[in-house]
Design goal:
Chain B: Keywords: Amino-acid transport, Cell membrane, Membrane, Transmembrane, Transmembrane helix, Transport. The complex is a heterodimer of chains A (about 350) and B (about 325). Chain A is mainly alpha-helical. Helices cover about 70% and strands about 5% of the residues of chain A. In chain A, helix 2 packs antiparallel against helix 7, helix 4 packs across helix 10 and helix 7 runs antiparallel to helix 10. The longest helix of chain B is centred in the N-terminal third of the chain and has 32 residues. The chains are: A mainly alpha (about 350), B mainly alpha (about 325). Chains A and B meet through helix 6, helix 9, helix 11 and helix 13 of A and helix 5, helix 11 and helix 13 of B.
Chain lengths: ~350, ~325
């Protein structure tokens, strides 16, 4: 009823191949972006700082991993470390060249991460699947060790931690203790939207088709003239670029400062959860996955005590924490059983149902 | 030149000068190798029979050991606790098969892998809920695990052998022997091997896949319990063991995902390589290389022999 293809005629090939061919979709995305921006002025500091900023940062990292795992079919468990490379590179650049705008450095730091990612992507030319996952674990542990052992990375400061120095954009502080959650949210949101737009163009274009071809059948792809070496390394580089930028955002715009421990193996797993629950090979799925995996525990932390208290069960914070683990675990299994293709597939089904409503097909 | 000397000459000179230290390091490496091998064995069992890359093996080690210690602390006699822990692993195997594997049959590998992640989270939550998050002491005395050390004088120095380590090596060997006999001589073992070769062919000759899955998960659970007891006796039972279990992954790479002897030899190579690397080359770069050396060894190895030492040659080369 509200969602109809009827009457929308396409007269050019580009219009037919557009990412949002339906007018309703275009309006919808505009409304979502507008809502996201207006949230900066409507939402309170807690919502922005504790929910929206991390959600966006994790979405960006999930998009990065989704490019690698979902589109190019290369399983990686080194996401956390690649995020770390971005964060440390950003810190070094920021402190070495304080006069250059910090936003520039956030984007540039991704390139360092991309280079490291491509380096550790080299084994992907010979191995795949879980073997590759173990190879990327080498990256994870080796890079994490580097973060601890190379004091040069943190400018020899005693605490060994990264901290966000005061940096401004148009005279407004975006980094450091004085930056408000509102400004930081707007910066993160803009970067995420920009990079998502780039990613969307990448995966729908020639490069994305090459990745998908390699994922679906590498031999056939090679016969068609796609070079596995370049394609796979490019996937690693682009994926690590996204993760690197996400890592820089995570440390400087969300935490405001962090230690090497933020980029541990659990972070890698966390992002992988998001990608798989959200839907492999789907950009919107990355957002859904990040929302579910990150926001669900927060919601559970609030809802669970309220649910248990009417039964006279006053439980401690630790029990809530354990229950949260159990519920998240059970829900992961539940979602996989109900829809192995992730939340993105549910979204697709929902859209299809809306299109044909009120008829079943 | 100096750095080359430090990397390629000095460690070996040092090894030659102090053979007792070398022997001690080798022994330490072998013992941790046995423990890695035990965890890798659990992975291999499940991977062979169901093609599931079981990430939850690490937490199964912790969980089974926690049940044993937890029951003992509640006043249950040690051996009864052991039997109950084995029973709990059987229960877990049945539950996993019913709730996780059966609805997800025929899904892509990565989905099943992901499901074992979910299982890991669930077991972490459950374990902490029941037993609390604090590290526990593994019971050794009531299970007749020997304590103490023997110091042998050789090569002009003292070499220490912990009795517990010797016991661990012996028990692991017995375990592996039993598994080998089970796989080659019994009816169920033959069925397991048939399933490993081809699910469809096994089904068509009347082997129940569901039953086989319960059996392999149970077997992996028992292996996990043994690994949990041994490792717990060395360093206490805590949830951090679960991350150490990730060390089993390079072992698998080295030995091949489907080979039981591979898991053992891979475990020993990784264990020894790691300890030697840490002791002789670690100080050059500031130490702590134990955390990643195993993975780098596996990574280098992969480039030359992608199917592992004993693995079946099914890896596609591109």
């Amino acid at each position: 009823m509200f969602y109809r293809e009827a009457g929308q005629f396409k007269s050019t090939y580009p219009a037919d191949m557009a990412i949002f061919p339906l007018r309703e979709d275009r309006i919808g995305i505009a409304v979502i972006i507008l809502a996201a921006y207006s949230l900066a002025f409507l939402g309170n500091a807690f919502l922005l700082q504790a929910v929206m900023i991390p959600f966006l940062v994790f979405s960006l990292a999930a998009i990065g991993l989704n490019i690698l795992t979902g589109y190019a079919g290369l399983l990686s468990l080194g996401t956390g470390a690649f995020m770390g490379v971005g964060a440390y590179a950003c810190y070094k650049l920021m402190t070495a060249f304080p006069d250059v705008n910090v936003i520039v450095w956030i984007f540039v730091s991704g390139f360092f991460s991309a280079a490291i990612g491509a380096l550790f992507g080299l084994p992907s030319l010979r191995i795949k699947g879980f073997y590759l996952a173990v190879a990327t674990l080498a990256a994870q542990f080796f890079l994490q060790w580097c973060f601890i052992r190379i004091p040069w990375l943190v400018n020899y400061n005693v605490s060994g931690a990264l901290d966000a120095p005061l940096r401004t954009l148009f005279g407004i502080p975006v980094l450091g203790a004085t930056a408000t959650p509102q400004t930081r949210y707007l910066v993160v949101l803009t970067i995420v939207i920009l990079l998502t737009w780039v990613a969307s163009n990448l995966v729908h274009g020639r490069i994305g088709r090459a990745w998908i071809a390699i994922r679906d059948m590498d031999l056939a792809a090679e016969l068609m003239g796609i070079r596995p070496l370049q394609t796979k390394l490019l996937a690693f580089a682009v994926s690590s670029y996204y993760c690197g930028v996400a890592g820089a955002l995570l440390v400087f715009l969300w935490y405001g400062g962090a230690e090497y421990d933020v980029f541990n193996i659990n972070q890698s797993f966390f992002i992988l959860f998001m990608v798989i629950i959200g839907g492999l090979g789907s950009l919107i799925g990355s957002f859904f996955g990040a929302a579910l995996i990150f926001i669900l525990p927060i919601v559970l932390g609030i809802v669970l005590p309220a649910m248990l208290s009417p039964f006279g069960l006053s439980v401690g914070a630790d029990v809530i924490e354990h229950l949260r683990f159990m519920i998240v675990g059970a829900l992961i299994i539940f979602f996989l059983i109900v829809e192995p293709h992730g939340l993105a597939r549910l979204w697709q089904i929902g859209k299809q149902k809306l299109l044909v409503w009120p008829f079943p097909y | 030149m100096d750095i080359l000397y430090k990397v390629f000459i000095e460690p070996f000179v040092f090894m030659g000068e102090a053979p007792d230290l070398l022997l001690q390091t080798l022994w330490e490496g072998l013992v941790s190798g046995v423990l890695y091998a035990l965890i890798a064995l659990g992975f291999v069992l499940i991977f062979k029979a169901s093609g599931v890359f079981n990430f939850a093996q690490g937490i199964m080690v912790v969980f089974s050991a926690l049940i044993l210690v937890g029951l003992y602390e509640k006043g249950v006699p040690a051996f009864l606790a052991l039997i109950l822990a084995i029973g709990a692993m059987l229960l877990l195997a049945v539950a996993v098969e019913r709730v996780v594997l059966r609805p997800l049959v025929n899904q892509p590998d990565i989905i099943l892998f992901m499901a074992t992640f979910g299982l890991t989270y669930f077991l972490i939550g459950l374990g902490e809920l029941i037993f609390g998050g604090n590290p526990k002491e593994m019971i050794t005395g009531p299970l007749f695990l020997p304590q103490g050390t023997t110091e042998l004088e050789m090569f002009g120095g003292l070499v220490r052998f912990q009795h517990l380590d010797i016991a661990a090596a012996v028990i692991a060997s017995i375990m592996i022997g039993l598994l080998a006999v089970f796989f080659s001589k019994t009816r169920i073992g033959r069925a397991l091997r048939a399933v490993a070769d081809s699910h469809k062919a096994a089904l068509s000759v009347g082997i129940s896949l569901n039953q086989i899955w319960v059996i392999v998960w149970f077997a992996a659970g028992i292996v996990a319990l043994v690994a949990g007891i041994m490792w717990g006796a060395r360093s206490g039972v805590s949830f951090s063991l679960q991350i150490i279990a990730l060390k089993a992954l390079p072992v698998l790479i080295l030995g091949g995902f489907t080979s039981i002897p591979g898991a053992i030899i891979g475990g020993l190579i990784i264990g020894v390589g790691e300890k030697l690397g840490e002791f002789y080359w670690g100080p050059l770069v500031g130490g702590g290389i134990e955390t990643w050396l195993a993975y780098v060894i596996a990574l280098l190895f992969l480039l030359y022999r992608p199917q592992g030492l004993f693995g079946e040659k099914i890896i596609e080369r591109i």
